[in-house]
Amino acid sequence: MPSAESTQASVHEPAPVRPTQEDEVATAGSELIGGPLGRRALLGTSWWTPVRVVALVAIGMFALGLVQKAPCYHGAWFFGASSQYTKACYSDIPHLYQGRGFADGLVPYFDRLPGDMPYLEYPVLTGLFMEVAAWLTPSSGTIQYQEQWYWMVNAGMLMVCAAVIVVCVARTHARRPWDALLVALAPAFVLTATINWDLLAVSLTAAAMLMWSRRRSLASGVLLGLATAAKLYPVLLLGPLFLLCWRAGKWRDFGRALTGAVIAWLVVNLPVMAFATDGWWQFYKFSRERGVDFGSFWLIWSQNTSNPPSVAFVNTAATLLVLLCALGIAVLTLSAPRRPRFAQLAFLIVAVFILTNKVYSPQYVLWLVPLAALARPRWRDFLIWQACEVVYFLGIWMYLAYTTSGDAHKGLPTDGYHGAIAVHLLGTLYLCVVVVRDILVPEKDVVRRAGVDDPSGGVLDGAEDAFTLGTRLSSPYPAARTGAPKAGWGDRSGAVPRDDAP
């Protein structure tokens, strides 16, 4: 017989969600592995918890991504510029081992580089990540051998980041652990994971969102500050937190998160700022002075006019566009029928930054994948967007093959590449529109259909409104439990229990 406490908890806590029961695409896809989860499945009462399953799937898919890079590993990175593009296996990692002085033992930010780039153009925590990988790389053998080792060491470290990401996504919405499969199986995630070092910042951001969902606002802020020390985009998440805490009147929690973020960022950056000022400033200088580059709508404009916009104009215009869109998100947040979920606003603000930026490198999709899985865990919409990103992934490499193959013109001409950019832009806009619709019509939000408010919202989950631009509304959802389970590997709170009832 169940206890009174368990009976009461079951009234207030929705049952774990099985995607094969609510998502027709997931149901159809499950036929590849034997069909939807059965009523007497042992999953959740054995070692095979959902978190462990998605982590192993992510590692397996990451390994497939390494196999996809094999043609370059075995020669295309080193012999002929165009072959690494025609085989779609390019990576910055081996090229920058020598190009940024790691092969010569130069210290990032402190030692000046001999080439056109005077210092390493990455944020400090990413530079440390790159340096640690260089320490683990053998210094003997040919430069090709060292570059292969450097890429492999980085790939191992990035695989840990990928596992952290899917575990954090699975734990953030504790009743929807299977949504992390969206991340683990995302084609663009697999294809771009080892192009650059973005997974470090993505993993720290995912961990920050997990801590916020567990009502650990200071820890969340610290992780967000570390993520910003690895890549600039995570700082944008403070905007949604500010708006949501304003609407809910949770100023103390926002203050803790902001304080943690500032302190963590300063702890990482201040030593380099003080003793290698020019090297520290290189990332920000490069970001400001960089011209219009691959993947942006600015490039389409620049390549289709005799009077392309200047870098100064694009910098100003892109900043104004981000601010204008941020203002729209603020109005949406404060006037929506129900307070938007944190993950929804996080996805929107990062997507705005990507859509308006003067460059879109193919690995930038990694920033959005975990946020999309939390904001709109619907396989159809997610796969439509991913298909668009795969088109762009292939498009940029075929375009680079076209521009580097000389008179042979192997690959995709300029007009075709512009089409690939448009597909990427439209796919991301499509997902933004769907998320905004979910905010305006909460009944269409698949997360809230289960009777919850904001599983990733932490103190915001179930909180009443303190300020809105319209009528003040009380939350119709029960407040989340304060004693949330720890985000450990052995915790089975997100597991799907057996259903042996008739």
From TrEMBL:
Residues 1-23, 473-502 are annotated as: Disordered. Pfam families: GT87. This is Glycosyltransferase 87 family protein. The chain crosses the membrane at residues 47-67, 149-170, 182-212, 218-245, 257-276, 311-335, 342-362, 382-402. It comes from Streptomyces thermogriseus. It is a multi-pass membrane protein. The keyword Transferase applies. Residues 1-10 have a biased composition (Polar residues). Keywords: Cell membrane, Membrane, Transferase, Transmembrane, Transmembrane helix. It is found in: Cell membrane. InterPro entries: GT87, UCP010361.
